[in-house]
Amino acid sequence: MADSSRIEALSKEIARMDGSQGYDCVIVCTSTVKQEEFWQKRLEVTAGQAARKGALIIAVHEDWAPDGAGNGLGTLYAYTKAKAKAAEKGVDLDSELRNGWAVAMYHTAGKGTRLAPMPGAENNNKPGVKLPSLVSLGGSVTELTILEAVIRQTNSYAPQRKGRCSVFWGDQIFVPSAGTPQSGAHHADILACLGPMPTAEEWKAKGLEKYGLIAVNDKDDATQVEKVEFDMAQQLLGSFGTVKSVGPSLGSFSMSAALLLAMLEEFKTELAEKTAKFDSDPDFWMPLTLSAEAYTTIMNTKGVTPQVSGSHFGRMQGFKARFHALHPEAAMFGCIDVGQLSDCYWWDYGQLKLYQKNNMLACETTPEAAALHQFMRISDRKLGSNVPDGSVDSNSVVLGSRFASGSVKNSVCSSVSASSLDLEDCLCINVTAKSIKAKGCILYNIVDDSEEGLVYEDGHVQVNVFMPGQDKLVMNSTVSTDGGKVFKTCLPNNPHSFQDVYKMNGMVDVSEAQAVGNKAAQDVIAKFMPTLKLPSEVGAGGAMNALASATTPGYRNMCSAGPLNCNIQ
């Protein structure tokens, strides 16, 4: 489609992500009891800004063997726990799903090593890493989290998925250029970026051998192949029919109520013993859709012997035959196209460099930057802030922040409080100090009560880690450091490695840790800037009314022309 039409279509797609529609039940699978408690409360309070207002929120945690259940069994187990928790609220989740509820599940586990040190600053609550976007939280204003952003984005699929359970991962946002097609022709379907079947040269040029790929044939049935060269893909798909489209899988899938409940029965032994590990792609979708030869060949490249993979293939094919005899109304496995990668907006926050890149996008004036403003509800580049006239340049975004003197150039700030600021090309979220001077830095969850203030070398990364009853930790890195490669290494000027901090955060109460950090920040504000108030603290309307508007369904109509044309006062 023409670029102007594509931009308009994507803007309309974002306008649907406004909280007025969404899933009837939202299940969040976390790593610990404390994270479960945090998200249960948080998503109930931010309903209408992330999950749909009125949705049933159920947070659970995965108490499985040390190696985890895998995202296949993990999905089934999380649903089992959610069903029990729903029953305590008087809701029969199985019955509601059969009768048309749209249910969504969000997997949030994982250390987030490549995003380090950010997850450590959130006490291992990786989906709680903040984004520069304001939401109302009870009587206060705070940042939208990555998980809330993902829920907000994926809500648009809910109307097309009645009577289905959708499964998503919590670290990336995408705006589909293909819209949100109806599910239901297949008992299971998976999201992918589809395009025509490429030639060998195109396959190599696009680097498709690096991805798990979905192939769709002329009957609209889908299958999956894992990270293979063109010739191998041709061989493996030889018995699949005429391949009309292929593309990278997003991994996110949905299942009919009938298939979900049948799989719960099929794997009831594994769910009771809690020791096995099955992932959805290699252990569910591939053996259900590939030939025996193709499946065992792929699994052999993963170190699984033909005897083991052959046995599992037989089990899944037997399940498929029994299931289809009872539920012939739909085919087994299909694909929901999101559009080609080059046509979609794709904002990934799973790595530090991408976290910086996609948040700093807010400083630009491109159509994609306008789309990000629209999604993040940045209706005013100084929304909810108290800053001196002329101190913030036209590129910067300064949200819920205050400072008395200085300048901000080409930077993104959210909840930053200081008497004086001197920032250029910086990303600063939840930082409080007497003064801050930085260039090209990422500063996150920092509270500094020194008279000297904070001065950083170019490209520095710093976070604070708060734990109840302990001194805060100051953790450092650089914008060019891949935390995944140094996770177990104690970097210069750090008291611990990122791995050590992960272990120290193990059973920390996330809410209590946040309260400690918030109290420390308020003490610094009272010490250095007692009279410097945010609009929300003095009951002013203005920008905070804009925030209130931005959290209501009417926002999509007010901003239908795109956020840079919004003038909400």
Question: What are the SSEs and their pairings?
Answer:
Elements: H1 3-15, E1 25-30, H2 33-45, E2 56-61, H3 70-88, H4 93-98, E3 102-107, H5 118-121, E4 130-137, E5 140-145, H6 146-154, E6 164-169, E7 172-175, E8 186-192, E9 195-196, H7 200-205, E10 212-217, E11 222-226, H8 230-236, E12 243-256, H9 257-266, H10 268-273, H11 280-289, H12 292-301, H13 306-326, E13 331-337, E14 345-348, H14 352-360, H15 367-376, E15 397-399, E16 402-409, E17 412-424, E18 427-432, E19 435-439, E20 442-447, E21 454-455, E22 460-465, E23 473-478, H16 498-504, H17 510-528, H18 542-550, H19 555-558
Parallel strand pairs: 1-2, 1-3, 3-6, 8-13, 15-17, 16-17, 17-18, 17-19, 18-20, 19-21, 20-22
Antiparallel strand pairs: 4-5, 6-12, 7-14, 8-12, 9-12, 10-11, 10-12, 22-23
Helix pairs in contact: 1-15, 3-11, 11-13, 12-13
Describe the structure.
A hairpin with a 2-residue loop joins strand 4 (130-137) and strand 5 (140-145). Strands 1, 2, 3, 6, 8, 9, 10, 11, 12 and 13 form a 10-stranded mixed beta sheet that branches. Strands 15, 16, 17, 18, 19, 20, 21, 22 and 23 form a 9-stranded mixed beta sheet that branches. With 569 residues, this protein is α/β, with parallel strands linked by helices. Helix 3 (70-88) crosses helix 11 and helix 12 (292-301) packs across helix 13 (306-326).
